[in-house]
Amino acid sequence: MANELCMNCFSVKGPYEVCRYCGYVEGTPPEQPHYLRPGTVLKGHFIVGTAIGVGGFGITYKCYDATLGVIVAIKEFFPVGLVNRSPGEMKVGLLSGEKEKQYKNQIKRFLMEAQSIAQFGKANDIVNVFDYFEENNTAYIVMEYIDGVLLKDYLEKQGALSPDIAMTIIEPVVEALKKIHASGIIHRDISPDNIFIAGEDSVKVFDFGAAILNDESGAKEGEKVIKVGYSAPEQYRDSAGQGYFTDIYSIGAILYQMITGQKPIESTEREYKDELKSPLELGFHIEPNLDRAIMEALAVQPALRFQGIQQFDDAINGKRKAEYPKVKLRIRKRKRIMVACMSLLALAAIGVGGLFFNNKIKHSDKLYNENAKIEKATDIVVWVDNDKMKDTVEKTVSRANMKVKSAVKSTKTSDGGQFTKEQKAENPKITVEVKNISDKNSGYKDMDAALKAAKDGKEKYPDMIQTDDITDITSNEKKMVSLKDNVYAMLNLRDYSYMSAYSKYYPDMKQMPTSFDIVLMYALKDIQTSRDKKSLMESRWYGKDGDYDNCKTVELDEILKNAGSGSESVYIDKKYRTLLSLYQNSTDVNSDGTWDSSDEDIKSSIRQFDDVSEDTVSWLKDKNNYGKKQFESNSENYLKGINIISGIEYRKELYKTQAAESDGYRLLIPVIDGKMLVRYTGTFSIFDNDDKDKKLASERLLYYMVAQDDFEDGEIQNYPLVLSSNGLEAATAISGQRSLEKMIKEIQTPCIMLNTNDGKINEK
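RE: above sequence
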């Protein structure tokens, strides 16, 4: 039967010389003399047909598996310049010397490529590998044969595509990259000529010849391939500066071409002068956030791109706000990109497997899918314990495209570009009422009293509750929702500050912090021409050319050594004990970095720090007081220049001073063995509810509160320190170079987590 097969289409042509199905003439020599002749048999049952693809490292043939009766594609390892083959021969001839050594290393890498692709099994979006073997002094990979059209040919014929069609094609490529990256592989050749459109519902990625594989045995880097318009600028250099973001550039370029009908300007040209216009600038009608996502993926500088394929996927589907690289660069205040790149590479070297496994198991659409829909108009109630938190929650509600029941102060409105269809359709169904329990009109002394009333049936339980200052609700019968598979599942932990300690801190995952505070030290300077009393002008913490003039952190041991000198000033807050008391009990610092003190006074002193005393506020407002002896001195039990915790009110006054261009204060962050002292704040829990819409609405709101990263000028001082890294960057851009946010981002030291409250919220 083999003699009756057409060596081009493998139809049964019979005894005829010319195939009536495809027109192939039997006996036609191969296109190149070193190609295998049609009719050659490999491994006893693979009949070689015509060559369908060629690259610097191999030749791909259309073949027929005589055992299974199916058509396959077989890639032969044939590195140009290292081997040769006489016309009509099967065996590959090796060149001697150094080239033979190179060949052996590269054939090893070729087989690693086969093993790497084979791990994906029968993936719907990656060309399947069935087998690999060595023969004829070389190696072969047996792959799925795709009877389809290359995306390259499709685009040449179709030109610009509608956004809907472009998204239909790009989504399978994104899903393929998720699998590839999760396996530690960088493809490095994502381009239209390596993507097959196999049918209306089938798009597949192939050709891993250029990939950097996840292997420790060496020979893991593939051939250097440059595709003008699709290759990131770092691909023109060595592989040291490449990462998953390299593939993201390529996929962004493909999406750009599909929507605009033209390839992006070559990346190396853009390094010198970037004149690439976005689809919107070119007049194409697409969602603003999709436009931003494409351009963020195409950022010339790797640090300004999405760093993970899940981030890109979330952005093009409206689940994450994207940003134009120029705007992102301004927010980052022109940080040194090479430092960022090296950090990414270090991260990849020590933990890429765990990092991408973490991304792989998280379901970013957990709160938006077929089984998570708001079916009806839904009202939820949120209890908070201060006006500032009420204001914060209400602004978040507005930004999340939900409705606020009570009046809300003006806030930034969404352009709608970052919302998915589900968010646009469903979130307006949600109305949120935020109640401040500490308000004099609430009728309750504090949150504990309100919860007791709910337990006694005198008050209806809220749907969501702030838990920072709750002492004990373990006796409540109302169950709390585990946040593990909803809010927590939405978070990519590397995008949030200090969240790596979350699961240790809240093992039942029934409380979720939305912000953090940090212990800091301030030194005050005399701004008057004459001083009648000593001030911190002479302090080593502030003095000109002093020991700490260019520092941002200071060890607590250093502070304590100078605590009794008399030249320092001391501020005693009547409401709270200070850090010295905590430090004297440093045996309570656990090996994992958490703080678990048994001292009840210490516990109570670090529970609620959003407010500072009226005396402090009034003193800070009066510039004439800078440098005067407004603080007690020579006190043995208090630290010098410690503000307790950087609550909103304290930072608000510092921002005002900065805005007035006064240089009356200096911030230093106290550390213990290099570790900052950090406390989760703005912690919330959700009560279990038979009404699934209320429960889902609460989960969505809490997620938005954690992910808060968008601020207007002038409002940042009213917000806590946000957990979102993007939010911290935005706050830095708004609040300025001397801001606490900037200090925290620059230092990025490990931390000791302070205890949050006395009681835990447990399921009864």
